[in-house]
Amino acid sequence: MAFAMQLRSLRAMVTFGAAALLSLGLAGPAQAGVTISFWSHEFGNEFPHAFFVLEGTPDAGGEPVQASYGFTAKAITPAILMGSVPGRIDETKHGYIENSDVHFSVMLTDAQYADVLRLVEEWGEAGDHHYNLNRRNCVHFVAEAARRSGLTVVEVRQLMKKPRSFVHSLEPLNQGRVRLLEMDGEKFYALADRTAAPGSVAPAVQAAVAPQPAGAN
After folding, report:
1. 178 contacts: CB under 8 Å, gap ≥ 6
2. Which tens digit of pLDDT belongs to each residue from 177-212?
3. In what order do the strands lie in the sheet with 49-57?
4. CA–CA separation, 72 vs 139, rounded Å?
5. What is the 3-class SS of 18-32, one letter each residue?
6. CA 35, CA 68: separation in Å to the nearest integer?
7. By CB neighbour count within 10 A (0-12 exposed, 13-18 middle, 19+ buried), where does 120 fall?
8. Number of other CB atoms surrounding residue 2 within 10 Å
9. C-alpha angle 208-139-64 in degrees, rounded to nearest 5
10. pTM for this structure?
11. Integer Cα distance of 80 and 132 in angstroms
């Protein structure tokens, strides 16, 4: 409940701040912004997983943002193979992020940022938090976050249980709109300015659909 209240409060602050700037005629070119980056985790003892990280300061001002969210089943049991089970929002820990891979990022408007926060609330305890390996897993959660970030998203059925392949598939669909990163988390967090990280060439579509482990968290 406290988590949902914090999200509602933060979203209200973003909306109010943007409206105040518009009413004063002060809304101009963005001087700040929140960046969303898209990640996958493919190795180790855990299931493959997709999640996103939010960093920066809203254009309307306020406290700096540093948050990361994924979606997973509350309990990893054989029941996830049979149908829907309770799910939960996973606030991804820094150590886990450092051992994952960042693929690309995009700068959000305050309205998009508020919409992404709404997504976290809608899939959390206060909303519909059922998890389904085939229809509502971490990849589906990230796909919806990408849509709310203004990106083109195509849900290819064969990729919806392959976190890295799915995130890679978004890159050629959004060339010119995203900053390509393609590095591990440890290197990413060592950058002096993560919003100015070096780019890389978008993976070929063939690479995006390369076979990967079928499980998804």
Report:
1. 104, 105, 106, 151, 170, 171
2. 999 999 999 999 988 777 654 454 444 433 444 444
3. 130-131, 85-90, 65-73, 49-57, 33-41, 101-108, 179-184
4. 10
5. HHHHHHCCCCCCCCC
6. 11
7. buried
8. 6
9. 105
10. 0.78
11. 7
